[in-house]
Amino acid sequence: MIIKILPLILIFTISCSPLDLESEPQDIEVEESVDIKVEDEMEEDEAEEEIDNELVLDLNKSFTPKEYTLVEAYPALEFEQALLLTSPRDETDKVYLVEKTGKIKYFNNDSAVENADIFLDLSSKVDSRASEKGLLGLAFHPNYKENGYFYVNYTDRDNTILARYSRMNGSELGDINSEEILLKIQQPYSNHNGGHLVFGPDGYLYMGTGDGGSGGDPQNNSQNRGNLLGKILRIDLDNSSDDKAYSIPDDNPFKGNTEGYREEIFAYGLRNPWKFSFDSMRDLLIAADVGQDRMEEINIIESGGNYGWNLMEGTLSYKDTNTSLELIPPIWEYEHPLGKSITGGYAYYGENNPSLFGVYIYGDFISGRIWGLWLDGDNNVENHELLDTDLMISSFGLDGKGEIYVVDFGGKIYTILEQ
């Protein structure tokens, strides 16, 4: 398949907690594209034949959805409190599924697969007793095939933990004895823990954190750049510093500041980012942020950006406060009760759903709706409902081929297919 890219826009997705029953989740469509050049030596008739088969990402068009259905991706498999599906870049075509209670399971990416094996069991370390606590994030190092490193985000009794693990020598399995704790963040309440982990195209790790919990951010953590709550963090895991097991990228927005701001911060003013992702073709970071009582939102994340919480909830004023701060509004939002806990997704660049090519797919944990969001070349937004389901959509996932999956907290995994 040849994919041709016209002028692009990149979107960032922020994670929002599907377990946050105060706000409505949204379904997000995700698209990816690949730029392939035609060699100068190619015969003219060969070039014409290949162009006929191109999929073109045309940002001047509008998005016209078709009819879609959900299909069980792995009918024989069922999981306990399924929270995340991902795949490493190791050419094995394995899929990894995170369970909130602490297990990571893996299996062949085959609809006929009958068993999922335990890759790593962290149940003894993870405190998942509260609805928004547990094993919340998993990301494989970009060079996982060579170095065997992977990273998890989980809660213990009082903290969020970011830890690195290694694959056991000569095995496909993770080694529980290899844990190295890289970052520990004290949590004042049990809810709003964020937890999503993503390696960016720059090779750095991006990590979402919630505002510390309770309701309304009573400690004003999200606007406080002196702590790590209510933020998206960005760190370099391939290099350490004098006092940390990681280092701060040179272009982080607050590196070297003299105001006492934490240098790990990439963006702030977030309530509970529940899933975010990179649209690498558009060079954007798109995040979904779970709302409080009225509004769910999708943001394009920019370096140093302030997304307004707890002064604003989306484009609505939350506090009766005048401010001179420069706040970045969401690119899309929806009000309760259309949904109450948005779940961020991905831009879609797979082959099975041509009508969704370049569309950001996302959903809502409470209402079960799945939407597709399209940005044209002028940043005009189109949003269409794709499916109205009875699922508790805790996450979306991509496999190594760019196909998208819908993760139901109840334990099943689905694919989206256009009719």
The biggest sheet, with number of strands, parallel, antiparallel or mixed sense and barrel status, is: 5 strands, antiparallel
**Rg (CA only):** 20 Å
**SSE-based structural type:** mainly beta
Shape from CA axes?
A: globular
Could you list the spans in which at least 5 consecutive residues all have pLDDT below 50? 1-17, 21-53
Q: What percentage of residues falls in helices of 4 or more residues? A: under 10%
Percent strand equals 35-45%
Using DSSP, what is the number of strands? 29
Quote the distance from N terminus to C terminus. 21 Å
Q: Round the mean pLDDT to the nearest integer and report it.
A: 89
Number of helices: 2
Describe the structure.
The chain is mainly β and 419 residues long. Helix content is 3%, strand content 37%. It is built from two helices and 29 strands. It has helices at 44-52, 144-147; strands at 3-5, 27-28, 55-57, 68-72, 82-86, 94-99, 103-108, 117-121, 135-140, 149-155, 159-167, 174-186, 197-199, 205-208, 231-235, 265-268, 273-279, 284-289, 295-300, 312-313, 316-317, 332-335, 342-347, 360-364, 369-375, 381-388, 393-398, 404-408, 413-418. Strands 2, 23, 24, 25 and 26 form a five-stranded antiparallel β-sheet that branches. The chain is globular.
